[in-house]
Design a protein that fits this description.
Length: 108
């Protein structure tokens, strides 16, 4: 009885951890395009990005999770990735900014 209860608790904890990991990955995916747009808008200055944006770019575009640490360390890691593969971010098309006018097409 005790063993089965512990097994159930372990399964629930594992499922919760997996769900949190999926949510974190989804958040990175959502941040990545706007983070690249911000990076390009800042003239490629990685230190102008927030840590979450730095992580989003590294994970989504370079498929390389960064080692956790100080922001300066994460900046250097992303700068190294960009230097090694400059074409990766050059090919990214920035999403439209919220201030840009949008054309609406109506059908009669």
């Amino acid at each position: 009885m005790l063993a089965s209860s512990l097994a159930e608790i372990s399964v629930l904890a594992s499922n919760e951890k997996s769900a949190k990991s999926s949510l974190a990955a989804a958040a990175l995916i959502d941040k990545a395009p706007s983070a690249v747009a911000k990076l390009k808008g800042q003239g490629g200055l990685v230190s102008a990005l927030a840590m979450g944006e730095i992580n989003a770019i590294a994970v989504w575009y370079f498929k390389a999770p960064l080692r956790a640490g100080l922001k300066s360390s994460m900046v250097k890691q992303l700068e190294s990735l960009i230097a090694a593969q400059p074409s990766v971010l050059a090919a990214v098309v920035a999403p439209p900014s919220p201030n840009e006018s949008r054309t609406t097409v109506t059908m009669a």
